[in-house]
């Protein structure tokens, strides 16, 4: 038996796909260890996949696209119950990475009745509840004795938290908070799993004590009777209806009618209200935004994974789809041979790797900040907020674009739900909106960049933090790309730094200039905001390139290093071309240098071509996790598309009731009128 570098090879697979795998130059298990940050975790993912493969009760009973929303929720609840019961046989206790993989395999990306419980409810209690409160609620939440969500957004306000309408008014006499929804627009609207599943929520409401508004605070609120699951008195609650995707999750609405909770239900790890109404403020005004920062930090990896789902599907399919000829004397080629197809897919493969490496760094920083904040040190909160605001925006934007490119790369079959592309797109694109609409979050990063630009302009560059230190550095007069005998990544990084620095300083100049001309600060800010957001994007894209460079430098295995270096070359050349206006406008890069960049791009498209399938196989997604006929590991696409179509609910009978009821009479009357 031959041992191939690509571990996805099996006998009986589509030979076109096997041929791709045979050309792979690196070990896909070793690459998976890079993607998932450790050999141990990559191995555990495979073990978990194998365990699930052997347990048919954990498999989908039919393809998701053939189920109604109600069926999907029932099916998801069935599997959720099973994995809860057998969790310790499948994953290590409390291992969130393993849990994430188990969920993706068994439950899928469309959500499930306890999605928000794990992603926001438990993180909110962990970071914001006092030890006493944690003893009361956190253990029960972890044991799944209660199901919770995070209820912040309202019908009228999601972005502007200071203007939420839900109030929590302290009643000193009874030592209770009175939660109230004064208007329709004050209804909580959107929280995941609020509609039908949760019996508790961490609710964000404006806190009023003795007539004074203390702004948004977080409260632990019982919503439904623990035994009957009926809404408690004073609570109006339900599902907000079907969405573009993510429909297994029951996003909900919630209203309070003078609903009373004890004072001790205010989450009090960092903030306190004493029985007499005395307010003890937290060490940082935004400390209670931690559940949002948790998701923003982790969603970078989540988005990279969804982008990679789409790229795995499109790259495998492109290797078995033959159409047209390049050399007319030769047979039809795999569509992956077309340079346009490679140009559509490979730069996004590079981006997916770049995103997952950046995501890993972000989670590390998040964990550090979480530990520091627990001891009262809030010094890195602003840096984390700026970084995650930029990354969630840039990564979710390019993820959605990449998935759409991957769908189009699959031609007509990409439009069928058999590809699963529409669901992947629909779920991923939600990330552009949730956890802060992308424009809004880019503007949050811009505040940080403008402050940094001020330091540079006032000669205080030494005070710049490591994420923005480059803003204080001097640029070369022109880029050295193609001007040194061995153009390396350093020249590219310096070019990206130059571009981001120039845009940041220019946008800040515009903002300060408008204020000098007499505009009020918020007006000047609004008039500069497109330019400011450009700066935020360029800064974030620089960070992503640097994270990629850092990772490639760390890799020891020469085969992995070579292919990752190829991907990095592709990435830097593609990114630079994509932002070439910025590079050209001050002459930092010349058009002849851009010709070099273009040639490099085409060179690396061709160099990556033999490794394309191995690069997507390295993510090691099982067929169950991908849920795509086009993306099957074995490449047997056509017979399975036919089987899928035959299984469609519409094909259960030859003649549909709608035909009997309407079409037949319509045709009959048309025929009769002709007589
Ligand atoms: C496990 C991984 C898998 C992931 C998959 C997830 C799938 C789950 C699907 C969906 C879940 C979705 C959940 C949600 O969407 S929950 C609701 C999220 N809502 C938002 O994100 C709202 C966005 N708005 C805000 O965050 C804020 O309103 C704001 C940041 C835009 C402004 O806040 P506000 O208090 O009004 O601002 P101020 O003007 O008073 O202050 C600005 C000041 O504060 C600093 N700051 C803001 N936030 C933070 C923070 N978190 N940490 C540190 N500092 C913060 C900000 O930097 C400003 O500072 P300044 O410039 O020095 O003044
Ligand atoms: C799939 C999904 C799941 C969600 N889950 C939850 C959840 O579990 N819990 C929860 O509480 N919420 C949840 N949400 C709500 C989500 O967090 C909000 O929708 C999001 O924060 C955006 O707020 P908004 O809807 O008020 O948008 P808006 O603020 O109304 O945005 C509309 C437009 O206005 C622009 N805009 C708004 N303010 C500014 C500004 N200051 N400067 C410039 N432009 C601005 C935006 O850029 C956007 O273009 C979810 C949403 C989705 C889609």
UniProtKB/TrEMBL annotation:
It comes from the Eukaryota. Residues 490-668 form the Acyl-CoA oxidase C-terminal domain. Residues 27-147 form the Acyl-coenzyme A oxidase N-terminal domain. The active site is at residue 435. FAD binds at residues 153, 192. One of its GO terms (biological process) is ascaroside biosynthetic process. Its main location: other. GO terms for molecular function: acyl-CoA oxidase activity; ATP binding; FAD binding; fatty acid binding. Keywords: ATP-binding, FAD, Fatty acid metabolism, Flavoprotein, Lipid metabolism, Nucleotide-binding, Oxidoreductase, Peroxisome. Its cofactor is FAD. The keyword Aminoacyl-tRNA synthetase does not apply. Transmembrane segments: none annotated. Pfam families: ACOX, ACOX_C_alpha1, Acyl-CoA_ox_N. It is found in: Peroxisome. Residues 289-450 form the Acyl-CoA oxidase C-alpha1 domain. GO terms for cellular component: peroxisome. Pathway: Lipid metabolism; peroxisomal fatty acid beta-oxidation. PANTHER family: ACYL-COENZYME A OXIDASE ACOX-1.1 (PTHR10909:SF368), ELECTRON TRANSPORT OXIDOREDUCTASE (PTHR10909). Belongs to the acyl-CoA oxidase family. This is Acyl-coenzyme A oxidase.
């Amino acid at each position: 038996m031959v041992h191939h570098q690509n571990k996805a090879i099996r006998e009986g697979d589509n030979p076109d796909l096997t041929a791709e795998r045979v050309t792979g130059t690196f070990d896909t298990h070793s690459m998976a260890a890079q993607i998932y940050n450790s050999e141990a975790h990559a191995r555990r993912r495979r073990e978990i996949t194998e365990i699930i493969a052997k347990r048919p009760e954990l498999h989908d009973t039919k393809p998701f696209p053939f189920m109604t929303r109600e069926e999907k929720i029932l099916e998801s609840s069935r599997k959720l119950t099973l994995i809860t019961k057998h969790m310790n046989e499948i994953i290590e206790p409390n291992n969130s990475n393993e849990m994430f993989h188990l969920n993706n395999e068994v439950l899928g990306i469309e959500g499930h009745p306890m999605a928000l419980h794990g992603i926001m409810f438990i993180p909110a209690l962990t970071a914001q509840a006092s030890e006493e409160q944690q003893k009361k609620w956190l253990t029960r939440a972890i044991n799944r004795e209660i199901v919770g969500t995070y209820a912040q957004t309202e019908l009228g306000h999601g972005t502007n938290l200071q203007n939420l309408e839900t109030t929590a008014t302290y009643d000193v006499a009874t030592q209770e908070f009175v939660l109230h929804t004064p208007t329709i627009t004050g209804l909580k609207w959107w929280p995941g799993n609020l509609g039908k599943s949760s019996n508790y929520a961490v609710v964000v409401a404006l806190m009023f004590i003795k007539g004074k508004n203390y702004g948004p605070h977080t409260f632990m609120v019982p919503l439904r009777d623990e035994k009957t699951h009926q809404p408690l008195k004073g609570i109006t609650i339900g599902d907000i209806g079907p969405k573009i995707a993510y429909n297994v999750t029951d996003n909900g609405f919630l209203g309070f009618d003078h609903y009373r909770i004890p004072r001790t239900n205010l989450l009090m790890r960092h903030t306190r209200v004493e029985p007499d109404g005395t307010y003890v403020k937290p060490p940082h005004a935004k400390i209670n935004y931690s559940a949002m920062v948790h998701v923003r930090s982790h969603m970078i990896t989540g988005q990279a994974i969804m982008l990679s789902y789409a790229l795995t599907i499109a790259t495998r399919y492109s290797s078995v789809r033959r159409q047209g000829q390049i050399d007319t004397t030769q047979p039809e080629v795999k569509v992956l041979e077309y340079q346009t197809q490679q140009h559509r897919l490979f730069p996004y493969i590079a981006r997916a790797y770049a995103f997952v490496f950046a995501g890993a760094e972000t989670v590390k920083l998040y964990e550090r900040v979480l530990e520091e904040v627990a001891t009262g040190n809030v010094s890195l909160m602003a840096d984390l907020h700026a970084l995650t605001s930029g990354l969630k925006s840039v990564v979710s934007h390019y993820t959605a674009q990449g998935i759409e490119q991957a769908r189009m790369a699959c031609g007509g079959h990409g439009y069928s739900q058999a590809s699963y592309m529409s669901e992947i797109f629909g779920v991923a694109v939600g990330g552009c909106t949730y956890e802060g609409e992308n424009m809004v979050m880019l503007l949050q990063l811009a505040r940080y960049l403008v402050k940094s630009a001020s330091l540079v302009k006032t000669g205080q560059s030494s005070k710049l933090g490591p994420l923005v230190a480059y803003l204080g550095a001097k640029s070369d007069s022109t880029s050295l790309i193609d001007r040194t005998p061995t153009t390396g990544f350093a020249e590219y990084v310096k070019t990206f730094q130059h571009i981001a620095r120039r845009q940041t300083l220019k946008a800040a100049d515009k903002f300060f200039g408008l204020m000098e001309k007499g505009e009020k600060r918020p007006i000047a800010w609004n008039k500069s905001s497109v330019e400011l957001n450009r700066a935020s994007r360029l800064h974030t894209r620089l960070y992503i390139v640097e994270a990629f460079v850092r990772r490639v430098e760390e890799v020891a295995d020469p085969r992995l290093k070579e292919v990752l270096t190829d991907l990095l070359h592709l990435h830097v050349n593609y990114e630079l071309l994509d932002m070439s206006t910025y590079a050209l406008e001050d002459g930092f890069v010349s058009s002849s240098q851009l010709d070099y960049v273009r040639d490099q791009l085409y060179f690396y498209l061709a160099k990556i071509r033999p490794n394309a399938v191995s690069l997507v196989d390295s993510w090691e997604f099982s067929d169950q996790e991908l849920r795509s006929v086009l993306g099957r590991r074995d490449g047997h696409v056509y017979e399975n598309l036919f089987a899928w179509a035959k299984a469609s609910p519409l094909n259960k009978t030859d003649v549909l009731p709608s035909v009997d009821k309407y079409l037949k009479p319509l045709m009959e009357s048309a025929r009769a009128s002709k007589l």
